[in-house]
Amino acid sequence: MRRLFRTNVIAIEGVHGSGKSSLCEYIKKFHSEQFYVLDEAFLNDTTQSVEKSTPFHPQSLIMETMWTCRWFTRILEHREASRGRTIIVDRSPYSAMAYVRPSEPGRDILKPLIKDSLRELRESHNVNLKTIYLRVQDTDVLYRRITERLNEARQELNEGSKQHLLSVHNFYESMMSDTWDYVVSNELQDITNLNKVYDDFNKCHSLVACK
């Protein structure tokens, strides 16, 4: 069997409002020669049509499971287009665990599915996934960012709830010891000034590329 070339994938993880999308946009704008960037919309062509045609909430276990499975197939669909560049993707399958409703039972079901799928992706397709947790410890900073961008669609996902934010934030923090490969701090008051965050991100990328 022909050995597939290795593809490095870095998933930028974090709570809503942590700056994932802004960092992806920054990388795509200034460093596209080195990175192939997939923003959060890279699944929209399939998931949005499903969401409109079903009675399930987008954060239900059924929809989050579908989102997780589609994440893996879309990564493989994009590997040729990456042309050897590291693929940067906004969110990993672990995001499904963070946002699924109800949280605890859903997380227990999704976790083994995600871990086994990541192993299969690595062993059968030679795709090396690493996660970078974009960390914001100050939840007041997070909530201010969230309220500034809040719209009807985000309201439907409960993003206007401070309690929801704290629950998701606690989940991400609980994954620090055994899930996130690297952590980059993003406590910036001005989310548009991403030079320092990118520098820290690129240090992590250098470690991934060497392995």
UniProtKB/TrEMBL annotation:
Domain of life of the organism encoding this protein: Eukaryota
Keywords: Coiled coil, Kinase, Transferase
Stored InterPro entries: P-loop_NTPase
Parts forming coiled coils: 136-163
Entry-linked Pfam families: AAA_18
Keyword ATP-binding: no
Entry's Gene Ontology molecular function annotations: kinase activity
Keyword DNA-binding found: no
Name of the featured protein: Thymidylate kinase
Organism taxonomic ancestry: Eukaryota, Discoba, Heterolobosea, Tetramitia, Eutetramitia
